[in-house]
């Protein structure tokens, strides 16, 4: 990914922190929380690695197909999980977007600035941008009432891994990160 270096580092920090919190959520006593948290941790750390500025670390060309394979496996897992729980379809879209970005970087000619070959935004990139922008707006709207309810109820008794408002905030931050990464494509 390319873009302003300071924005890239902020994206790295946001995604890494989100991935770290998702690792904490994997210790939840709720099985569905643990399953979701594992995929979300992979997404958070994967996005953090992909967002590192190329001036600092440029992965070798063979790394991008490896990223695509890892996220392809995550997409298949999300597809399988979506049979029982439809909310995993979002994980499927996220993992598929990571595959798309990995493949786009892998097939792009080497150089500091490579475009998609045209002057406009490719259709798939545009569709993913619309999806994730909508997801961010929806997740943000869902987060506000949850925070007000927890604050009004006195909250604080739930373990860190079981706090639904923090899980929603993580998903919101990853959605924002995905929009930022897609904008740099």
Task: Put the structure in a nutshell.
With 185 residues, the chain is mainly alpha-helical.
Describe this structure in words.
The radius of gyration is 17 Å and the shape is globular. Helix 2 runs parallel beside helix 4, helix 2 (31-51) runs parallel beside helix 6 and helix 3 (63-82) runs antiparallel to helix 4. It has 185 residues and is an all-alpha fold. It is built from 6 helices and no strands. It has one domain (5-183).
The DSSP helix count reads 6
Strand content: under 5%
H/E element order: HHHHHH
Number of strands: 0
Oligomer state equals single chain
Distance between the termini: 7 Å
Shape: globular
The total domain count is: 1
Helical content class? over 70%
Low-pLDDT ranges: 150-155
Layout of helices and strands:
Blueprint: H1 5-25, H2 31-51, H3 63-82, H4 88-107, H5 123-153, H6 164-183
Helix pairs in contact: 1-2, 1-6, 2-3, 2-4, 2-6, 3-4, 5-6
Question: What characteristics describe this protein?
Answer:
72% helix, 185 residues, mainly alpha
